[in-house]
Amino acid sequence: MIWKHAVVLSTILAVSSSTIxxxxxxxxxxxxxxxxxxxxxxNLDGKSENIWDRFVHEHPERIDDRSTxxxxxxxYHNWRRDLEMAEELRLDFYxxxxxxxxxxxSGFPNHINEAAIEYYNNVIDGILEKGIExxxxxxxFDLPQSLQxxxxxxxxxxxxxxxxxxxxxxxxxGDRVKLWLTINEPVILCEAFFNAExxxxxxxxxxxxVYLCSKHVxxxxxxxxxxxxxxxxxxxxxxxxxxxxxxxxEPLAPEYEELAELTMLNFGGRYSHAIYSKIGGWPPALxxxxxxxxxxxxxxxPQLPPFTQEEIELVRGTYDFFALNHYTSRLMRTAKEGExxxxxxxxxxxxxxxxxxxxxxxxxxxxxxxxxxxxxxRKGLVWLKQQYGDLEFMITENGLATKAGLDDQxxxxxxxxxxxxxxxxxxxxxxxxxxxxxxxxxDNYEWNNGYTVKFGLYEVNFTDPGRKRTPRASAHxxxxxxxxxxxxxxxxxxxx
Length: 496
Ligand code: NOJ
Fold this sequence. Notes:
By secondary structure, this protein is an alpha/beta fold. The protein has one domain: TIM Barrel (Alpha-Beta Barrel). Helix content is about 40%, strand content about 15%. It has an 8-stranded parallel barrel, surrounded by 4 helices. A hairpin with an 8-residue loop joins strand 13 (about 460) and strand 14. Helix 4 (about 75-90) runs parallel beside helix 6 and helix 16 packs parallel to helix 17. The longest helix is centred in the middle third of the chain and has 28 residues, at about 210-235. Bound molecules: 1-deoxynojirimycin. 1-deoxynojirimycin binds near residues 397 and 446.
């Protein structure tokens, strides 16, 4: 009897010190990975070399621990375990990406690698058998080397190459995959490829390469979207969008408000306006500002290549929802005379004469670019709604970089705080957010950080040949959020 009272009392105490906030009915939870970061099998069964294979083999010094993604989590062999984990978490959907150089070893559809089709068929069927939905990213940073050798994202023909690749994957997997993302984070893709020596090909062309890439990515996405819309949508009723990286930028002081807004337009808007705005094309204020910079630098044409009217029509409206990845925030101020900002991955701010800083009370996560500011996700969502209207928003990545350890209370806290802000955006700001994706299901190859930085809900032992996966505290926490379809918030930090 005494025991029973104690239980009742502790329940009352627990209830009185926290609030349970439900997610809207139908809100979905997922977790994500990407091919190069998890698959391994870099040269198995007909896969050809992609730009990351070449880069890490030729330039180990560019990777913090000189590691490669040759084996990574070995999901090429361990995919069944990955899906078990998705099931343990009770995910509604699992986001993963396809490797272009595995499916089309030449980069072109003249040869379709049957082993790759079989591999992805197994993964997709396995996901569906568990009652989970596949969310497939067609391209996530791992361009076939053969296409890079032809200029990669700077070559206008890549628009057709990507369309051809998309046709192949739609034809093979479109009967079962109903949710697609064409290209992951074009801003990172273009900036890191052409504006910093961080991602392959580490070819620096800040004036031209970056902007050619921006335009080609938009056209490539649009063509793929239109293929789906015309050929598959009537039969399979699936949905396709681009996934845009949204960092939240705010002014350091009120006088920098215009600059912060321009930075939002440059970083997120450059990859959104053409698709989601009513008028299409580049964000006008950004196009104008960059054209002035080009003139000042002595170019006879704008560095950001203008869209033709036909291209504006091609890209406009090519979405079924707004997909965003979000991690971090920054403050903006104007550069002083002679001052330059070169920090990756935000290089282009130099063209806006801006300097990026951070708020002292935003804690730094375990990687250089990452400061924690939960409110940023809410503000970013509200900004997007103001810019592009009352769209459906799906958060396709969000998560924390940490160092090793299973008891990752910092990640638990991050998910709690960011999800609280997502709920505030839904409940207070009336933003129609329908899905949230944790990055990432398991520790994996974090690009230039190699295996030194962990983002996983599951820890992966990279010295174990079997790449054993073990759930962290955050995996239990996330599973509990999904099971209860709600967030339990201690009342002290509630900001309703
Ligand atoms: C976004 C990218 O899509 C993903 O590949 C990367 O690992 C995470 N950010 C964390 O940096």
